[in-house]
Design brief:
The chain is α/β, with parallel strands linked by helices. Helices cover 34% and strands 11% of the residues. The chain contains 8 helices and 7 strands, in the order ααβαβαβαβαβαββα.
Length: 305
């Protein structure tokens, strides 16, 4: 008698299913809301941001000697609150290719040492780790093949180290749907060791519509079987503007959740810290990473509802 076909292997469970994400009780939005007690409309807009979980960015401004303690403190705060913190690592050498967020550690050896201290700080605690926004999409701006290979190798090493933390769910950044074609990005992710991670992140600090980013994510998953993704929805409530840098008229997007309704989408997260500037933008606006209350209030008030 013919044997029945073996049952397909079950899809791996979403490690973020049902998770509550960490809310920073001392965020810029929370402190600003406290300062705006006499302005009810502004205060309400700021509280709308402050009450949602956002990511904690850890970069080269936290030196190697201090980064384990900083990461451990955030992980402990999340554990104490019964929540999962979202950490963004942002210290790759030649970061942002000299643009508004330029910086990073001096070389790949220094970066490897820094990453290992991040791993020490993670311990056994739960955390989402988004690894190096824009580092893979910006490979083309590096000066030569050796530099591109060095960055890819540094990311592959970091993925392997961080994925070894038992409570860490690691996503290697893949830019946005409007940046690198899916075939090329899938190869970059593959070369950088995405198979060792949970998957990849999309739309970090950008404004792409959630459905467009998820469609691109599904294209990448088709090329990277077993991968999953998260989407930054912090500022995409009105989709892309006419520039990537502090575009006018944008709004908060869908609130963070692990209930996405998409098989490969583990979560929608607010990865960009809402209200921080993208950079000077050639218009004399606040420097990258600077808290900008008026921009934050506008994002919130235009979100409606």
């Amino acid at each position: 008698a013919p044997r029945p076909a073996p049952a397909p292997a079950p899809a791996p469970a979403n490690p973020l299913a049902g998770a509550r994400f960490w809310v920073d009780p001392a965020s810029n939005a929370r402190r600003e809301a406290d300062r705006r007690a006499a302005d009810p409309a502004a205060r309400a807009a700021l509280l709308r941001i402050a009450e949602q979980p956002g990511a904690e960015w850890i970069g080269d401004w936290t030196p190697t000697s201090a980064v384990a303690g900083r990461v451990a403190a955030v992980v402990a705060a999340g554990r104490s609150a019964g929540t999962v913190p979202v950490l963004v690592l942002y210290a790759i050498p030649h970061r942002d290719c000299g643009s508004y967020s330029r910086g990073g550690l001096p070389d790949t050896a220094a970066y490897a040492a820094w990453v290992r201290q991040v791993r020490a700080g993670l311990g056994t605690g739960r955390a989402v780790v988004v690894l190096e926004p824009d580092a893979l999409p910006q490979l083309d701006c590096l000066p030569g093949d050796a530099d591109r290979r060095a960055r890819t190798a540094a990311l592959r090493d970091a993925v392997g180290v961080l994925a070894g933390a038992p409570g860490a769910v690691v996503y290697l950044d893949a830019g946005t749907s409007r940046w690198v074609p899916a075939d090329a990005m899938a190869q970059r992710l593959r070369d950088a060791g995405v198979a060792q991670a949970r998957g990849f992140s999309l739309n970090v600090s950008n404004f792409g519509w959630t459905d467009a980013e998820a469609a691109y994510g599904d294209q990448l998953v088709a090329r990277l079987p077993g991968s999953h993704y998260v989407v930054d929805t912090s500022r995409n409530g009105r989709g892309p503007g006419d520039t990537w840098c502090n575009p006018a008229g944008r709004a908060l997007g869908p609130v963070p959740t692990s209930s996405t309704g998409r098989a490969a989408a583990d979560a929608y997260l607010w990865v960009k810290r809402v209200g921080e500037s993208d950079g000077d933008c050639g218009r004399g606006e606040p420097a990258a990473g600077t808290w900008w209350p008026d921009y934050a209030i506008g994002l919130s008030q235009r979100a409606g509802g």
